[in-house]
Design a protein that fits this description.
single chain; alpha/beta; Ribose 5-phosphate Isomerase B, Chain: A; 2 domains; seven-stranded parallel sheet; elongated; RpiB_LacA_LacB_sf; allosteric enzyme
């Protein structure tokens, strides 16, 4: 086992004692600093030690600052790190045995040398017990993964959350279980129209000469690039009319898919597209992006039919769905009004809005 060790100026003296102890035990380690009592910033050393563990260069780590608190907080910002701030031997042992901690954080100004060395020994010599504790650590990892996915999505230039106040207001009414089908359809169409502004933001313009009642001038108009709106049946139909109000010349295709219960592979039961689909800007509509399976399959089908420029427009999405589509089709831009918390065990988005198709058409 190889240890990584780091400290700030508040932990420098204790680190020197711990290094002597590790040498006496013939423990392999790498010292990431600091190397004096000059004032420095503990996050720098927390990051260096944490990255060495995540990369596999080192197996576990020891971090020391004045209290052990700040440096542990900093280390725990790194995905995959479980840094335990310990003040006694028992907690150091339990951090390994029950929590599978890969870093121990110690306060150089609050923990005596003798206890600190015993804590280090307990941390080095104790193995993770697993069992019921493994289940709990796995739950921590899943929480971490969920928020990591969300952070990545927020930074992804190909994922756009359209947070305009009018859209968010109408989305709240759409979510309400007391909203009837008629109002639901009307609001969904309105939100689709509002979202269309953002989805078409990068459409190209060209200079044209027009004559106003006053004089001639050069103005900007769309280049004439053709558009196709392709709803995924059946719920995607509810977004089409709103978009056609802004892009009335667009042609409308339709895609229907289901999954074979035995092979779990997508089966196309309906596909009707403009004959020149390869020349068009394609906007796929579906109110819900849950697992991402249907959307990814629809995009695959469109690409096979020749479509090259594809965008996906959904009302709400689960992080799992966004992740699935981005992995399957990294070239496709995704536009949503909100990314919700998660999928439940039945594959519904939480908090979501229920089954969009049933709410649009008044079915059960």
């Amino acid at each position: 086992m190889k240890l990584a060790i780091g400290c700030d100026h508040g932990g420098y003296e204790l680190k020197q004692s711990i290094l002597k102890h590790l040498n006496s035990r013939k423990v392999d380690y790498k010292d990431f600093g600091c190397f004096s009592t000059d004032s420095c910033d503990y996050p720098d050393f927390a990051l260096a030690v944490s990255e060495s563990i995540i990369s596999g260069e080192c197996d576990r780590g020891i971090l020391i600052c004045g209290t052990g608190i700040g440096i542990s907080i900093a280390a725990n910002k790194v995905t995959g790190i479980r840094a335990a701030h310990c003040t006694d031997v028992y907690s150091a042992r339990m951090a390994r045995q029950h929590n599978n901690a890969n870093i121990i954080a110690i306060g150089g100004r609050i923990t005596g040398e003798a206890i600190a060395l015993e804590m280090v020994d307990a941390f080095i010599d104790t193995e993770f017990e697993g069992g019921r504790h493994g289940k709990r650590v796995e739950k921590i990892a899943k929480v971490e993964e969920k928020y990591m996915i969300r952070r990545n999505m927020e930074m992804d230039e190909r994922v756009t959350v359209i947070s305009h106040p009018l859209i968010q207001h109408k989305l709240a009414i759409i979510r309400d279980k007391n909203t009837g089908s008629k109002e639901f359809r009307e609001l969904l169409s309105e939100v689709a129209m509002l979202m269309c502004y953002e989805v078409t933001r990068n459409f190209q313009l060209e200079d044209v000469e027009i004559e106003t009642p006053i004089c001639k001038m050069n103005a900007k108009m769309l280049t004439g690039k053709k558009v196709a709106i392709v709803p995924i049946l059946r719920a995607g139909l509810g977004m089409v009319d709103g978009m056609l109000k802004l892009v009335p010349a667009a042609k409308v295709g339709h895609i229907g898919l289901y999954r074979d219960p035995e092979t779990l592979k997508p089966v196309e039961y309906y596909c009707k597209l403009p004959t020149d689909i390869e020349e068009r800007e394609v906007i796929i509509t579906d109110p819900m992006l849950a697992t991402g399976g249907s959307a990814a399959d629809a995009i695959t089908l469109l690409k096979k039919k020749g479509a090259r420029n594809i965008k996906l427009m959904c009302l709400i999405a689960a992080p799992e769905g966004v992740k699935a589509v981005r992995e399957a089709h990294p070239d496709v831009d995704i536009f949503v009004a909100n990314i919700d918390e998660k999928l439940n065990d039945h594959g519904y988005i939480v908090p979501g809005l229920g089954d969009a198709g049933d709410r649009i058409f008044g079915t059960k």
